[in-house]
Amino acid sequence: MKTFAEKMKLFQENPVVNWHEHVWFNDRMELDEGLLDGLMEDAELTFTDRIVCSLPILAQTVTPEEFRHCNDTLALALKKYPQKLKGFAFVNPGYRRETEYEVRRCIEDLGMIGVKLYYQYRIDDPVMRDLIETCIRLDVPILMHASKLNYHPEEQPFVSNGPHFAAAAKEYPEATLIMAHISGGGDWEWSLKAIADFPNVYTDMSGSVCDDGLMEKTVRLLGAGRVLFGTDGSYSACVGKIIGADITDEEKTTILNNPNFVRYLSK
């Protein structure tokens, strides 16, 4: 039986990229540097080389002024830890013109490498088309909050799940879509089955759910090359899910530094 230190050599001896984390505001709507520094401590303890962060607003309505402030605040974090952090721009695609401008500003001027969406619209809503096409032109991925809610679905009426991602992937096979936190809650098996046949839809294994067989079934249905390491606020749980999964070491190292996403880190 391996000790925990021996199991963590998987992280210590291989590149590790965390594709789903966040920085947050403090009470003054400024960058919470204490939480940011804590995230960097987590990264050091777990031998994480790079972390991709965003700063979303968890609300149904988000204005252009609000999402620009989110991205300006995220940019401060990227400047503080330029060797460790990369950023995903947060936008509300309902504001089409403002979203187009903001995504370009974040990618071209602020050095971000993708887009983060929450649940303002589903991924297959027609309002998303302009944004998806912009991301295709800029060659950046879209990471979107997702869940198949079994309880209280009215709390997130426009949240995306597997069939929504499948529909968007069918319309835009050249887009790179990440269905966030497969272990973030809800019926993850429903969503996995829906996206299995769409190779441009990936998932990250972040989230606090630690169901037996979750990692194994995700890799079996999608392949390790469509799974990203992520934590989304559950760092220790997600490290445990990797080292405890009954999958091969090769599959684990693929998830920890997915070769399909390495090129985005150099943008």
Shape: globular
Total E-strand runs: 8
Strand order of the largest sheet: 1-2-3-4-5-6-7-8
* Structural class by sheet pairing and helices: alpha/beta
- Give the number of helices: 11
Contiguous uncertain segments of 5+ residues: none
Describe what you observe in this structure.
This protein has eleven helices and eight strands. By secondary structure, it is α/β, with parallel strands linked by helices. An eight-stranded parallel sheet has the order 1-2-3-4-5-6-7-8. Helix 8 packs parallel to helix 9. The radius of gyration is 17 Å and the shape is globular. 46% of the residues are buried.
Briefly characterize the structure.
The protein is an alpha/beta fold and 267 residues long. The protein has helices at 4-7, 9-12, 33-45, 64-80, 96-109, 129-138, 162-171, 188-195, 214-222, 235-244, 249-256, and strands spanning 17-22, 50-54, 85-90, 114-117, 142-144, 177-179, 201-204, 227-228.
What are its keywords?
alpha/beta, about 270 residues, about 40% helix, globular, single chain, eight-stranded parallel β-sheet, 8 strands
Topology overview:
Blueprint: H1 4-7, H2 9-12, E1 17-22, H3 33-45, E2 50-54, H4 64-80, E3 85-90, H5 96-109, E4 114-117, H6 129-138, E5 142-144, H7 162-171, E6 177-179, H8 188-195, E7 201-204, H9 214-222, E8 227-228, H10 235-244, H11 249-256
Parallel strand pairs: 1-2, 2-3, 3-4, 4-5, 5-6, 6-7, 7-8
